[in-house]
Each structure stands twice: as C-alpha cells, then as structure tokens.
Amino acid sequence: MHTAPSNAAVLADPIADSPSHHDRADELLHIIQHAAHLLPAQGPIEVFVHHNTLHAFESLPFDKAVRAGWEVYGAEPYLSEARFRELLAMGRITEADLRSALQEAPELNDCVPVKGLDSRYAIRLAMLLHPMRTVPENELRWVIAETDALRKFRTDLAPSVLSKLLSASKAAFAKNDGHDGQATAGSEKWNESDWDAFTLRSLWDACERGATRAGRTTKSLNQHVRLRDVLLHATGEDTDRFVNEPLIRMCGSFLDQGFAGWELPHRDDGLFSAFVQIYLREMVAGEVWMRGLAQELQQLKASGATAIDSIEQSLERIGIAENDREAFITHTLLALPGWAGMISQLSAAPNWVDRPLPHDSLVDFLAVRLILDRFAAKYVASETLTYDGSLSGLADFAWKRSNQSKDIHLQSTFHLFQLAQSLGWSWSQLESLSKKECSLIFGELEAFDDIHRRRIFQEAYERKYRNDALTAIALTSKKVVNASTKKQRPTFQICCCIDDREESFRRYLEEIDPRCETLGAAGFFAVAMNYQGATDATYKPLCPAIVTPVHFVRENVGYTFAGEDRRRAENRRRIGMATHRWHSSSRGFFGGAVTSAFGSLAAFPLVSRVLFPRITAKIRRKASELFKPPPVTQLQLERYKPEPGANDGNVGYTIAEMIDIVERLLRDMGLTDNFAQLVVITGHGSSSVNNPHESAYNCGACAGKRGGPNARAFAQMANDWRVRSGVASRGITIPDDTTFLGAYHNTCDDSVVWFDLDRMPPSHFDLFESTKKTVDEARLRNAHERARRFESCDINCTPEEALRHVERRSEDLSQVRPEYNHATDALCFVGRREWSRGLFLDRRSFLTSYDSRQDTSDHAILLRILSAAIPVCGGINLEYYFSAVDNKKYGSGTKLPHNIVSLLGVMEGANSDLRTGLYRQMIEIHEPMRILFVIETTPAALLSIMDRHEGIGRLCRGNWVQVAVLDHESSSIQVYRNGEFVPFTPDATKLPSAKDSVAWFRGHRENLPFAWCDAGWPSANSVSP
C-alpha cells in the first residue's frame, strides 16, 4: 500500500502585484461570472419562485437548449422513449400525430438515402413506431447468444412485412443454391420456424458485414474535463466522495441563517478565509487524504494569498491550459450545483436573507473546492495508480491506463438488424450494398438517435393536447358568436388569480350561479407592495419577483385592541425565546440527556397529528388564540407624505397612486361597466404542515407568498369615494351601490377567509350571505374534484367527505402530497371568459381576463398582461416540465429524506448537495409538455408585441411556449409555427357533454378530455357546441 505524499509546496514568492497578475485575475473573475449563469437560479426556499430551469440557455431554441442541458448537466431532455411508447399504446399519442410531427420536422428533407431502400421519412417513422433497443455491450452479447433474437422475428411486425422478408429470403436462398455453397442439407424439410431462424441469422450476418464495410468499429471517448472524472474512469474511485463531505459542512455553516447551534468562526471574513483559519490546524485536517493540507494553508495565509490567487495556483498545478479554463471551472462548480448556485444567488441578492454573504463568495467556494480536489486526486492517484508525480501529468497518465474507446460494431449491427426487420429489408438487399451505401444507412441511424426520436414524440404528445384544446375552444367560440350581446347585471362578480387551481373554483361558481361573473388577474392585483402583517417581524414583498416594490403597507390592530395585542405579542416573544433556548440546549450534553429521557412524550402530539390531523388542528388553533393578533385589524394604506418608505408617515399610497392601481386592474380585466353590487377580489395561497416547499404552493405573482393582503388592499382602494371619482374621470364609472370585498382562498384545504366585513354596508348583508353560500358550495365541489386525484381518498366519496379529506391532508404531519399544486398545467387562456366558460378544463388552465375590444391601438393592455403572464406561467410550466423529465437532475428527488439546512433549502439526509427544483411527489401526475397560450388577439398584434418585448419574443420564437391567437370577430384560430401563424382546423364537429363537472369526472382519477358542461353557461336552455 502506498502512502499519499504531502501535497504542500512552498510558494516561491508572494503573489506579485503586477499588471499581468491583475489582468489574469480579471480574466478568472470573468470566467467565474460566466460559469455562474449555468448554476441553478433558485433562491431561498422561503421565497420559492417558479422559473425556467434552463434559464441559462433561454437564448437558444427549446430543442437546442434541452440538448445543451443534456451535454452540460447530464440531464434528460425529454421523457424516456419507453414512456413515450406507453403513451402511444394508451392513445395519449396517436400514430397520426406522430406522422404529422415527423413531417413538420424542419430537418426532415425527405429523400431516399440509398436507391432501392426506403425514404428518410419511412426510415424514421419505422424507428418511431418500432422500438429501437440500445443495450450495454455485455448484455447485447447475452441477448444474441441466449435469447430468441436470431430465431424469432419481432412481435410488432405487420404480416405483410413478415411475408416480404420470408419470401425474399427463400428467393435469395434458391438463387444461391449450388453456386456459393450456401445450400443447407435437409433444407427441403424446413418448417416455418427453421425458415425464420435461417432468415434472421442471414440478416444478422448481412448487418454485421455492413457495419464492417461502413467502418463501424470503435468510437473515441471524449476526454474528461475534471481530474475526478479521469480517475473515476480509470480506477472507479470517486474523489468527490472525499471532497463533498467537508465542503458541504463548510457551506451549510457559512450560509446558515440561524438554524445552526454554533456560528462558523471567521464567517464575516468570507468562506475562503474561514476555511483557511479552520483547516490550517493539523487536528482538523487530520484525514489521511488531507495530509499536507494544513501546511499549505499556513503558507497561503503567510503569503497573504487571496481566493483568486489560490484558484490561479490550483489551475497551474493541475495543468489546465488557458483555453480549457472556462470548461474546467464550469464543471468544477457544477460538481455541487445546489450549493454553488445558492452562494451565487445570495451573493447577487443579499437582501433575500437576514445574514447576507460577501459579493465574492462564489470565488471563495471555487478556491476551497479546487484545494480539496487537488488533495483528493493526489491521494487516489497514489493509492490506486501508484502515481506520485505532479497533478499536471496525472490526466495523461490515467488516460493511457484506461480504455480510450468503445466498440460500437455490435451495437451498430443490432440497430440495423432491428430496422431491417421493421422495414422488410432482406439480407440479400443489404449484402448488395456498397461501402458508401452502408455508410449512408448507418449515418441515417445515427442522425435519428434517441434524443431526436424523443423530440418527435414530444411534438406529437403536445400536438394531441393542442389540437384537442383548440378544437374545444373553436367549437365553444361558435356559441359565443351566436349568443346575445345584451348583458344582464351579474348577481356578483369575483376576481381570482389566474392560477390554474382557481379554474375549477371559478367553474363551480358559474355552475352553481350561472348569473355570476368570474374574472382572472395576476394575484397581486396591481398592488405591488412591501407588506408587514400584524404578527410579522419585517416587511416582505408581495408582487412578482421581477418587480421591486417601493411602497410599504402595514397591518395594524385596532386601537381598542392595542393593549390585548401587546400582551399577545409578548406571549409570542416569550414562547419563541423559550423554544429557541430549548432547541439550542437540546444539542448540548445535559439538554440532550433530558431530551432523550423525556423525548417519548413528544410522540403523543406527533402521533395525534398523523392519526387525527383535523381534531389536532382544531385544538392547536384554539390554543393559538392566546398568541394570534386580535380579530379586528386595519391596513395602513393611505400615505400623506410625498415619498414612500417604511416609516409611519411614508407607509401606504397616495390617492393618485390608488387611482392608477384601480384603473389598471379594471381595464386589464375588461371590467369597465356592468358592475355587480358585490365585487369580490380573491387572493390565494396554501398552508400545510411539514412542507419545506410551502412557498412554492403560494401565489407566484406574490413572490411565493399569500395574496390575501393584496386583495384586501385593492378592495379598500376601490371602495374609497375619492378613488372612484378619479377613476370615473378616466372613463370608468363604478356605481354607488357597488361594494368591493377582499377574500383569501386557501387552495390546500379549500377554506375562504373574508376581509373587512365590518366595513360592508348593511344594504349588502343579504347579498353577501347569498354569495357566501354560493362560495361555500363551490368549496365543497372544488374539494370533490381535487380529491379524485388522491389515491387515499375513495373515488366515490361525497363532496362533504372530500372537503374533510383535503382539510386532513393540510394538517397531516406525514402527508407528502398536501395538494398537487400546478401539476398537469398545460394551457393559459388570455381573453374573455365567454370563450372558455362551460368547458371542463380539468384544472389544467391558467385563466387571464382580457377584452381585446377595449384595448388601445398599440395593444398596450395586452402587452402589459403578457409581460407577466408569459414569463410567469411559462416559468411555472417549464419548471414542472424539467422536474418531471429528470427529477434527479432538474428536480429534488423524493421528499421523504429531505432535511432543511441553513433555513435556505433542503438536502437528502445529513450530507448532500442542496436540492433544487420540485420534489417527486409534486410532479408525479404531471404531463410534461410546453404550455399552450391561447390569446384573444390578431397575429399582427402578437407579432408586434414579440418585437417590442424581448422576453416574450424569446420564449415564443424559441418555442419555449406554444402560442395560438383567437380572433374575436371571426372566432378563427391560428397557431404560431416556425415563425408564422397558420390557420387551425378543428379535429371534431361536436364536443362530448355532461350535465355538470361532477357528472364528467366522477369515477375517474386520470386526466380527462375536454367536455361541455351545460350547467356552466348562463343560458337556461344551454346546448352543447
């Protein structure tokens, strides 16, 4: 056994303070900043905001971007081919869709690669319809030797193809008989099985000789970038298992926001300095692979070297050439992308956390990583390769010791063997091919590889849903065009967030009361504010993440209850301090002993929260009355000083600003006349226990927080007579008998909370009670539809049982699926509700209200709406897409082993990378497809908006989202494909219909097709389209 030599080396001189040194340092910083763009962009889990996981490649078209993601991250670009074939067998993808998707592929260029054989289209279609198995070489040898692969034809061959193969084989056999010795004794007695075996053996031999003629023998392996990869390939030893453990501990302590019992020493000096200070002691760097680390760190400290100096030194010692530095640094940072990404995000946005990081923390992280990588590589090379030379020569040494190429001859033969059966190519045809023709055929096979095939499957997958959706809308639009234009005054109007989870809630309101009107708008309702609730310690932004709010709003307790509020606040403070002290002391010797002795008592409340979650929740809520703020509160909403700020006189909005907000939202929704007596503005959010990702379930338009305060604030503004007067001067007259009311919908337990009921005029009491009754019934039915997705709920349960079930889920400590959030989202409709009202959309559609007839000539309202809707809804959809296609790389894996770390994120177990993306239970029912936007506008208007808004143009033209436009005059639909809008023709003339939503979904757990629900249309004699 070889002992790892010391890796310490005396620095010849202190780092020179020369112009060339500064230039190299600037170049390194530039490389690091560029590499940081490839890191995950997820911030702290408390403000989880859905976004495009591949934001770094958003400038590329979607298909090129996902391939880039596969090359850089090793992540899958699409669902597996096996999964797509399951969907094909289920009818979720049809053969017609597959053929159309293949024909529309821009690179098809249909031709006949080899005369006498099939066209490129036929070859690729055969590869799509018939599985092309790719198996490891050793397994493939076993398949050929031990299975019936060379004795029985594929089971998916059409009878005509099988007959063609056998006939050609017999004809070729007869022709060659007596000429080249191919005749086999007793062949006249062969049965059907004998001919099958002979034909397949001959076909295999022909394919094998074709692969030889085409030069399909070996393929060079790509040179690995990191030393870790070289050593792993050469020895099977992974140096990251040495490095990651101490590095993760350092990162967790460095990023900690108050969760750890001990603070990292020297944290304020930066990660690199803290690492040097801690590990320069021999007793800390005592592991065998760290031998010599303490001495090197002592020398670094003595020389005054910075983190960038250390990086330069490490790169030189490893022998990284100037041209290879960017790739090497990028791959090094991506070795722990979660931690590196969080450090990068917090360095760029220090306001996200209470304990910010120095701006150059990612440089420190890289410096520490490279030092540890060097020592681990040196140790493994010495132990496994008996290599004690310099690290700069290690890569070449290890590369020569390992296999530098792989045999592709057998795999190429197997691929052609499968294709030849599918297309009916005889062995005699293949034997007659020249070397060039063989090369062309194998080139076709290689060009249409696994990723290309999956891309066509993805297009067909999306095409099926797109055609179904547009057909449903096209058929419904005929009803809208033919309907009377005279509008009755609604019984009430309710504005919800555009969130797809509110689609079913709105649908049930309309089915229960067909005379009500529902609208949708981004859930911050144009009120971008920093908000501090009565129990909040600090202000938090309630607006889209891309917006930086400048206004502040505070919730105050009514003066009558001020004394009670102070007592309850003191109770909260004492309980918090006691809990914190107990948590800290339990990690010590005596506290740990006490916790161990009495810890079994804690099992009782834990068990009760699992077995009796609803009862336990009621007890907990009752006890919390001692700490909650008093029931009567008010928003400090009006500002008198000119400048907004967090101080008392600067909190709130001026009347002029309120007028702008109210006008903007009403115009955006098209609600400029025909106001109901009661207009409800409903924010939303979600609450559940034991759910670190709870923020991801909240309102995306409120930066991952609950939107109730925004709804409350808007209602208060719209009820102010001064605001109404200002809005009226701009052409929107709100009737005197119209009252706005704020509300909050919890999408997890389907509860609804109403705000400021004490401000409602007595004239509206009866109307409110009627509206509340409708809302309560909608809650029941909404829970009923949601519960069908949960396997633990009886598929035939009643609405009352369903509501109790979802209430239990929100309080169940063991529940990993409190709700399915945005899973299955696939559609966003931007237009008047009439175009989609009455349709069963299966909770898969975002619904944004917009009336193109009220827009300006330059489409300013639509531009404003789409500026938020396309990036936000597209970001949600893309995060679900990527977490679904590769939950290990793009998602965070299963939720079960997740532990909160540093109050910033989750990791698996006690030591892993920081897991980003969505956990598996959140996406398990999701169908990964790009969202389809159906927008009430014209092609010219949308093309103009694409030109004016770079983000919208990038997502639409890059095919990150699908787009179709609906003309409000003709009701015609056009789809954006390959840079232009093309007319859409519906696939059907009539939709399936049902009495109501319950009649359509009852007894089903799977995704359901579009259907017409008669109860949802205002007309009493509604007829399905």
From TrEMBL:
Molecular function GO terms recorded: zinc ion binding
Annotated localization: Cell membrane
UniProt xrefs under HAMAP family: DabA
Membrane topology according to the record: Peripheral membrane protein
Family statement: Belongs to the inorganic carbon transporter (TC 9.A.2) DabA family.
Cofactor names: Zn(2+)
Keyword Iron-sulfur attributed: no
Job description of the protein: Part of an energy-coupled inorganic carbon pump.
Keyword list, A-Z: Cell membrane, Membrane, Metal-binding, Transport, Zinc
Pfam families, alphabetized: DabA
Domain of life of the organism encoding this protein: Bacteria
Chief place of localization: membrane
Protein name: Probable inorganic carbon transporter subunit DabA
Quaternary structure annotation from Swiss-Prot or TrEMBL: Forms a complex with DabB.
Protein residues bound to Zn(2+): 497, 499, 684, 699
Gene Ontology CC annotation, any one: plasma membrane
